[in-house]
Structure to design on (89 residues):
């Protein structure tokens, strides 16, 4: 049984969605805060928060998918135990 996760190459749209989009939104919020008045400071902070939310939603999704792989490995190990009477190494 192979417990090492397979590495898949990241396509450019996936990298853009995970890192470039949140980075651009955060950068836009910082620009709004730097160039505007006091009310623009609050709006820029909201835009920065939106960029951080995009990043963390992507992170939570990846964490959930990684958990699925761990559950699948655990299920395979339990099936092995049921067939052979010992835990796989």
């Amino acid at each position: 049984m192979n417990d090492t996760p397979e590495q898949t190459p990241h396509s450019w749209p996936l990298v853009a969605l995970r890192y470039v989009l949140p980075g651009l939104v955060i950068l836009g919020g910082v620009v709004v805060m730097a160039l505007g008045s006091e009310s623009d400071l609050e709006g820029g902070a909201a835009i920065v928060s939106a960029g951080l939310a995009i990043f963390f939603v992507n992170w939570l999704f990846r964490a959930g998918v990684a958990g699925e792989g761990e559950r699948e490995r655990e299920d395979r190990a339990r099936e092995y135990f049921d067939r052979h009477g010992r835990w796989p190494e």
